[in-house]
Structures are given as structure tokens and as C-alpha cells.
Amino acid sequence: MKRLLISLFLYSLLFGEIPNSDFDSWNVLQNDNIWIGNFEDDFPWCKAKIILPFSIEYILPVIEDVNNYHEMLHSVIFSTKDKNNIAHIRIDYPFPFTDREYIVKFERLIDNKDVVYAFATNPSLNKTTDPNYIRLVNAKGEWRLSPIKENVTEVSYLWNGELRGDFPDWALSKAWVKHGNEVLDNLADKLKENNEK
Fold first, then answer.
1. E strand or H helix at 162
2. Phi and psi (nearest 5°) for 140?
3. CA-to-CA distance for 98 and 131, rounded, in angstroms?
4. Could you give the domains of the chain?
5. Cα 55 from Cα 148, distance rounded (Å)
6. Which of 32, 81, 143, 192 is the most buried (most CB within 10 A)?
């Protein structure tokens, strides 16, 4: 019990600003096979979700395999995670925009029947930066796997949509929709590919 309380306390410190799973005031950007919405608070929060014909146990190892995100997610050009669950991820942006990067700590949590793989940065992870990349110093979000029935799972991906730097405000919603579609489409493709092996 003590360990659970400590975990919940640490989670609230690291991930407390994230809209909770019951939040329903999203501005719907796409209502299709992949649902995408956003919400403006201190930061622009974005969420994408899809229902996939796989169990949580089948999906979770793929989501936790951060070292291979650069092979699964088309726009990720570099991804590595160390033994302390600190991950460094770099994302390719189309010309003329500068590529982005973020360094976050991942944490797996259980929330009722959901499995959550949450991530957040902190000031200690942003002490040094590479001038060739725009560092997303407020990166934070979560993967959430919610069981629907046997071998059917709702996968939601929630992230801080702040892009910083030279990215124009008028193009943000288009970028959020592109990102949400890519992440969940690429995940679905990877799961199907694994299933066919």
C-alpha cells in the first residue's frame, strides 16, 4: 500500500498537468477511424485514439520499445531509452522547419483496468541542448491502453502539442492531426506486421 501511495504521489508530480482520462471537453479535429482532439490550457493538449483488435499484452511491448520508435514511427529519426527509462527522441520536420527533439522519463502505471505508459520531461533533462534541434522543453503525455473486450483495446495517445520555435500558429491543428494519424497508423501497421510473422 505504501509503495502504491508513493507511486501515485510521484505520478501526480510528474504528470499532474495532463488532462485525465475522463476529460471530455476536447475540440474535435477529426472524427474517423482515428479520433483526434485538442484542448487549450497552459499548453495545447492533443489526444488521438483508435480501437485495435489486439490485447493489451500484445500492444504494450511495442509501445514500450522506445529504442525502435525510429523504425516504427515514420517521422522519428532517432530514439533511445536507457536503463532508467530516460528517452531521447528526435523528429524530422519538413523543410523549411527545424527538426524537434525531446528528452523524457517514461513510467508504466495501472489506472483501474487501464495500462498507462506516461512520459514527461523536467528541467534537469534540458540542461544542455543541440542548436540543430528545437528542444520541446515541456514534453509530456501518455499512452493509455483500455480493454474493450478480449483481444480488443482502445489505444489513446495524449501529448503536449506545443511545437515552439519557427512553427506558425495557423498550421498547428494540421500538424496535430498529421502527428496523431501517423502515430496510431504506424502502431497499427506494426502490430499487424508482427501478427503476420
1. none
2. -165, 145
3. 10
4. 26-196 (3.30.530.20)
5. 9
6. 143
Judge whether 145 and 59 are in contact, CB under 8 Å. yes
CA gap 6, 12 in Å, rounded: 10
Give this prediction's pTM. 0.89
Residue 174: phi, psi to the nearest 5? Answer: -65, -40
Going by DSSP bridges, is the β-strand pair 134-135/114-120 parallel, antiparallel, or unpaired? Answer: unpaired
